[in-house]
Amino acid sequence: MHTITRAACALLVAACAANAPAADARQFAFGPGKPPAGYTAVTADTVYTPARGYGLEPGTAPDGAHPYYFSVDLPEGNYTVTVTLGDDTAPATTTVKAELRRLMLENVATAKGQAVTKTFTVNVRTPQIANGGEVKLKVPRETVDEAWNWDRRLTLEINGAHPAVRTIAIAPATVPTMFLLGDSTVCDQPAEPYASWGQMLPRFLKPGIAVANHGESGETYRDSIARRRLDKVVSAMKPGDVVLMQFGHNDQKQIKEGKGGPFTTYRAEIKVHVDAVRAHGGLPVIVSSMERRGFDADGHVIPSLKDYADAARQSAQELHVPFIDLNALSMTLYEALGPEGSKAAFAEPAPGRLDNTHHDNYGSYELAKAVVLGLRDAKVPAAAYIVDDFAFDPAHPDPVAAFAVPPSPHRTAQRPLGDEAHR
C-alpha cells in the first residue's frame, strides 16, 4: 500500500506539470485557405523528407476518402497531440492511430461544417538507452516492418469512413508513462489482421498519461532482460510510472528445451523485473497471459497456460505487487462468445486459416478492456486516467457486429514470431 500511495503522489505531480505551456510546440494546418497564425500549411504536395522534418508519408494524401499518414520529427519523449477534426463540405468520421496502429481516437463524428477538438497523449521512442548502449532490435522485423516504432518521429494514421483533420498541434508533455513489456499479444503489431491489447489500450485512457509499448513478438521475460528492453524501460522511467508485464506464451518453450519452467526460472525472471522497476521508483504490475482459443465438448476453454498464470499470481502475491488475471478474464470472454463466435476475436491471415493464439482488432479491443478493468479492480493509481464512460463485463462482451474500428491500410500474411508449438 505504501508503494501505491507514493506512486499516486508522483502521478499527481506529473499531471500538474503537464499543464505547463510548451515553447517548442509544432502546429500544422490541413486543407485549403490560409493557415491560422503560428501554423504551418500542409497540402497534398507536402511529402515527408528528412530535410523538411515533417509531411505526408509518400503515397498518401488527405483526399477525404482514404487513410493517410502524417509524420513529424521529434526527440524521444511524451507528447500532447491536439487535433481539430471536421469538414466544411460534408459530415466526417475520423479515427486516429499513432506510430504502429496505436488507437488514440475512435470514430469521432462531425456534422458538415462542425469542428471538434480532441487531445491525446503519445510516446515517441528510439533504441538508445540513456546510460549507454541500445535495445537489441530484431532484424528485419523491428528495423523494417516496425521501424515507425523506433524512428525519431511521430507518425499519425488518419483513418475513417470520411477522415477529416483541420489542424494538428504537438507539444512536449511531462506526464506519467505506462510502460508495457510483453510478447506478440501485447506489442504493436505492424499490419492487419494482427493486433494486440497494447495497441488498443490508449483508447481507454484520458489525455495526461502516455502508453509506451515495449513488447515484442516471440519474447519472454528472459528475452526482455537479454535484449535490454527492461534496461530501456527503467532508463526512461520517472518515479510513479507504471510497468505492465505479460509474458508466458513463449516462456513455455523453455520447458521443452530444458531451460526452465513456470515455478522456477519464470518466477525468478519476474522478480528481476519487479526489483528493477521498484529500484527506479516505478510500480510493477504483473499480468497473466490470456488463453489460446480451444474448447472442449462442453464449450469450456481448454487451459494451456494454467501453470504460468498460477506462477504469475504467486509472484504478485509474494512480491506484493498488483496483479491482473487476464488469463481468467480471457477465458470468461471466450466462453461468452462461444466456440464459433470466438473466432471473430482471432486473426485470420488467409481465408479458412484461423490463428488461435493471436488476435484481430476486435479481440484486442475486448482484451484491452479486460486489462483496463483489471487496473481499476487492482486499484492501480493510473486507473485515475481511465475514460469516464468506461464499462466492461467479459461475460457480456461488445457485440461483434457493432465493432467498427477501421482497419489500417497495411496487411500481412506473416505470422508474428514465437509460439510455434501452438499454430
What's the topology here?
Elements: H1 2-17, E1 26-30, E2 40-42, E3 54-56, E4 68-73, E5 77-85, E6 92-98, E7 102-110, E8 116-124, H2 141-145, E9 153-162, E10 165-172, E11 177-182, H3 197-200, E12 210-213, H4 221-226, H5 229-236, E13 242-246, H6 253-256, H7 265-279, E14 283-287, H8 306-319, E15 323-324, H9 326-341, H10 361-377
Parallel strand pairs: 1-2, 11-12, 11-13, 13-14, 14-15
Antiparallel strand pairs: 1-10, 3-4, 4-9, 5-8, 5-10, 6-7, 6-9
- The low-confidence parts are 1-23
Largest sheet: 5 strands, mixed
Percentage beta strand: 15-25%
Give the fraction of residues assigned to helices: 10-25%
- CATH-defined topology of the largest domain: Rossmann fold
Q: Nearest-angstrom radius of gyration?
A: 21 Å
Number of strands: 15
How would you state the average pLDDT, rounded? 93
- Strand order, main sheet: write it out: 2-1-10-5-8
Region (Disordered): 402-423
Family: Belongs to the 'GDSL' lipolytic enzyme family.
Organism: Telluria antibiotica
Protein name: Rhamnogalacturonan acetylesterase
